[in-house]
Amino acid sequence: MSEVEATLHAYRTKLADGGNSSPFLNPIPEAGGRYEKPIATAHDEGLPIIDLSAFLDPCSSQEARQITAQAINAACINYGFFYLTGHGIPTSLLDEVISLARDFFALPLEEKNKIKRFDAGGPEGGDGARGYQGLGENFTGGLQDMQEAIDWYRDWPTDKKDPNDSAHGSVKTLQGPNLWPEQPSTLKPVYLNYITRVQHVGAALVHAMGAALHLSAPSPTAHASTEDDHIFARNCNASFWIMRMIGYPPLASPHDQFSCGAHTDYGCVTLLHTDATPGALHVQLKDGTWLPADPIPGAFVVNIGDMIERWTNGLWKSTMHRVIHRGDRYRVSVPFFYEPNFDAVVKPLSKCVERTGGKEIHGGSTYGEHLLTKVFSNFYYSKRTDW
Description:
Elements: H1 3-12, H2 38-45, E1 49-51, H3 62-78, E2 81-85, H4 91-105, H5 109-112, E3 131-133, E4 139-140, E5 143-144, E6 148-153, H6 187-212, H7 231-234, E7 242-248, E8 260-263, E9 269-274, E10 281-284, E11 290-292, E12 300-304, H8 306-311, E13 321-323, E14 331-338, E15 345-346, H9 350-355, E16 365-366, H10 367-378
Parallel strand pairs: 1-2
Antiparallel strand pairs: 2-12, 3-6, 4-5, 6-7, 7-14, 8-13, 9-12, 9-14, 10-11, 10-13, 15-16
């Protein structure tokens, strides 16, 4: 049994009662051989496993937090992906989230279409983003994805809504209400509880990521653009989060078809919860090879998005990944995208610019501007994009 297999075996024994912490995790360059040959190690042993509990426990030691931060830095530099444990969300809730998703996707199409996504500006009152999308409606890189899904977003602030947007057909992109299915009847309350829990994890994670960059200690007079350990946390304190509930039927074609085409995520960090299906999610390593990121029970698969790459000036790169599901069973996943605030200005941090050669990779913009360009390209059409 390899070291990683032994770690996973020990970790899995702790999961039944929601105990997500393990003393065997958090690989760092100074300990073990993973980062001597990171690509070869990933192919042999999988992605690194990081325990976040030190940043969720207010009584944890500074040493424990430093080890976690070092492990995050190494994982983000070498892979842009890792498994996350120690998050405190019980496996019973994680299992229920997947079970309810599977129940929804098993419903007749007529029932699912009761919460169908419609274009912003159309007579149906859709906002172009929220709601159910049928098979093949979503596109990645201009190619049709073989998936169906529901998309939910943080509620649009009431005080920022256009007062003229009260009639059907006048809703701007992203500014409509979330659409929840009538069946299963328990899906909405369970998912709202899950959203609250996973936002807490996201906040702790971006705090740890700020610490991983060795920025200055936070100051009581800090503002949104102050480049200290809390810069990510401050700029995500009203995270414009996104959650997707995705169903993937097995692909029928043996070639040239994707469940979800190769892409990077466009926000901050993704916390992916999925069923036990192996061999579907693939992560592109730095040498161009693809690594299966098979699920570990009770752990999130985490990857950094385009906004983190921009903030770090490419020190941490948003990693290409794809889904090709050719298994026998219908696959379900529920990614949660913990994003910056809609109005957060994201530009390269000065210390990261220094560490990467002194030239900024981007002049900076708000996350909302970046998000809107992505939403408009997810579907081939949108009728109301005026801001």
